[in-house]
Amino acid sequence: MTTLDYATEVIPETDLLSRVAELGEAITHDFRGRDPLFVIMLNGSVPFGADLVRRVDLPAEVDFLGLNRFGGGGRIGIAMDLSTPVLDRNVILIEDIIDTGLTLTVLRRMMTDRGAATVSTAALLDKTRRRVTDVPVEYRGFEVGDEYLVGYGLDWRGLYRNLRSVWAVLDQDVFATRTDFLAATLSARG
Ligand code: 5GP
C-alpha cells in the first residue's frame, strides 16, 4: 500500500473486490426465493453497487435513488426518485459509507413507509465509532476509522470517485492544494 505525506491508501482494489464478492455470496444465500430490489444510492455508491449486484446470483432488479442533504441532523430531500415501486419488495439499500447513521435511518423509514416487505442495508464502509443513532447494517464491507476517505465512489469536492482503491486523507489542508494526487495514485498502481 502506498503512503503519501497527505494521503494513504487504506483499502487496495484486490481487497475491495474480494470483500464485495463475499457480500454478494452472503446476499445470494440469504435472499434465495425472495428476489431483491437493489437501491443504489447516487452518486457515491455506484462503483460498489455495480460490483456488488454482479456478485449476486439471483433474479434481481436494480434502481437508483439520489438525495439532497440539508446541513447536519439527517434532513434529506429526494433529488432523483426510484422508478420502481417498493411495495411488497425485499429492498436492499446499497450505501458507500455510513457515518452518523442519520441518512440511513431516514432511508430505511422511507422504504418501510412505502410498503417494502423487508429492508436491509449493504454498506461498503462503516465509521461505527461516529454513529449517533442505532441503525442496523446487515452487510458490512469494512469497519473504518474517522479519516475522510476518497475513491471507489467516495469523492472530494466531486473528484476521485473513479479511483480503484480507497484512500484516507491525512491532511485536508495540504490535500486541498495537491493537484497531483490523481497522478500519484496512478503511479502507485504502476
Ligand atoms: P451519515 O448520514 O451516515 O452521517 O452520512 C453518510 C454520508 O456521508 C455518506 O453517504 C457520504 O456521502 C458522506 N460521508 C461520510 N464519511 C465520508 C468520507 O469519509 N468520505 C466521503 N467522501 N463521504 C463521506
Summarize the structure.
The chain is built from five helices and nine strands.
Give an account of the 3D structure.
The chain is of the alpha/beta class and 190 residues long. It has a domain at 15-144: Rossmann fold. The chain is 28% helix and 29% strand. It has five helices and nine strands, in the order βαβαβββαββββαα. It has helices spanning 13-30, 46-53, 102-113, 172-177, 181-189; strands spanning 7-11, 36-42, 61-69, 76-80, 90-98, 118-126, 139-143, 148-150, 166-169. It has a six-stranded mixed beta sheet, sandwiched between helices. Strand 5 (90-98), helix 3 and strand 6 (118-126) form a beta-alpha-beta unit. The termini are close together. The model has no long low-confidence stretch (mean pLDDT 95). The site of guanosine-5'-monophosphate has 17 residues, from strand 5, helix 3 and strand 8.
Coarse morphology: globular
CATH domain topology of the domain at 15-144:
Rossmann fold
What is the element string, with H for helices and E for strands? EHEHEEEHEEEEHH
Give Rg in angstroms.
17 Å
- Low-pLDDT residue intervals, each spanning 5 or more residues: none
